Structures are given as C-alpha cells and as structure tokens.
Amino acid sequence: MLERSRSFLDRLRRRRSVRHFSDAPIPREVLRNCVAAAASAPSGANKQPWTFVIVTEPALKSRVREAAEKEELAFYGGRAGDRWLKDLAPLGVGPDKPFLEVAPALIVVFAQRKGGDGDQHYYVNESVGIAVGFLLAALNDAGLVTLTHTPSPMKFLREVLGRPEHEHPYMLIPVGLPAEDCEVPDLTRKPLDEVLVER
Q1: What backbone phi and psi angles, to 5 degrees, belong to 185?
Q2: DSSP category for residue 143
Q3: What are the chain's domains?
Q4: Short-list 34, 93, 90, 38, CA closest to 68
Q5: Whether the bond into 58 is cis, omega within 30 of 0
Q6: Residue among 173, 198, 191, 190 nearest 52 (CA)
Q7: Helix runs in the chain, H state only
Q8: pTM (global) more than 0.85
Q9: Among 51, 46, 41, which Cα is nearest to 166's?
Q10: Helix/strand/coil percentages in the chain, nearest 5
Q11: pLDDT tens digit string along 8-21?
Q12: Radius of gyration of the chain from Cα atoms?
C-alpha cells in the first residue's frame, strides 16, 4: 500500500501542463480507456452528469482554435484585470493557442446541469471536477501530456461541437505527446505542511 502510494505520488509530481505538443497521433483506444476511467468517478446521486467529446478531426480543431482565440483576445485585451495578467505573465501565455491544432486530440468535457430528459442532477460542479481529476491522472499515467484550458466564456464549444442545450462546457483539454523542444515553466508546489492539517 505504501509503495503504491509513493509510486503514484512520484508519477503525479512529474506531471506538468504542456503547451508544446508533438503532432504524432496517439491510439484512440488509449483515449477511450482514459475517458472510461474518468466516467468511473463518483457523482451526486450517481447521475454521472458529464459528456466527454474527443476531437481529432483537423478542420474541427481549427474551428475550436479560431473561436477560442477570439475569446482569448477579448480576455487579454481588457476582460482580465491587471492583477490576473501579472500572475499569468511568468507562464508566458497569451491569446495565441496553436496547441489547439497541433495536439493530436482535444477532449472537451461538458457538465450536464440536467439530463437530456430534464432529469435533475446534483452537485454537478463537484462531480465533473472529480471526473476531470480522474481523467488527467489517467492520461498522465498512460504517458500522455495535457493542458487544462478554460477560455472564458466557453459557450462556443457547445456550438462548434453541436452539443445540446443542457450540456455546458466545463474544460478543454489538449492531449498528446510533448514536442521534442517542449519547455514547461519551472514551478514549485507548496510543501505538504502548508496544505495538510492533521488532527
């Protein structure tokens, strides 16, 4: 038990958000298995209020990028406050999102406030958040890299991907292998004694 917990911790500690992807294809079955892992997450009243859309078609990825960059231009051009932009500056991010086309796959996660039949769903944000955590851990464990991308607002994802009204975009996750010249920010995590309280 201790060995397995240490091994899992070690693998997750090496995980980094990546913005420089290889365009090398990845097996569809790997993506399907990782989504199946995500869909095994607990949810309020077991309503499973999520939809995962895997996008690999180049033309569709281009449409997603075009719509995302439109929102990002508005965000970086005035919607975000000075403090927010200052906090983002060390990460070297901006409105250009080429990774949305370069990454071989995008996984778009939708949250369902209600079912398609009007069925009530409970604790939707919490449930979908847990499922996304499962998904990121599964993709990392499979040897893939990801980025959690949340252009705001994300309504365009429902329109571009033709999803129904009861589904609300929750997160856009580019997935693939890192580019050979991939660089990631040199980040540190808070030490455990700053985030853990034991009584």
Answers
A1: -60, 145
A2: T
A3: 19-179 (3.40.109.10)
A4: 93
A5: no
A6: 173
A7: 2-13, 28-38, 58-74, 82-88, 99-102, 124-141, 155-160, 192-195
A8: yes
A9: 51
A10: 45, 15, 40
A11: 999 999 999 999 99
A12: 18
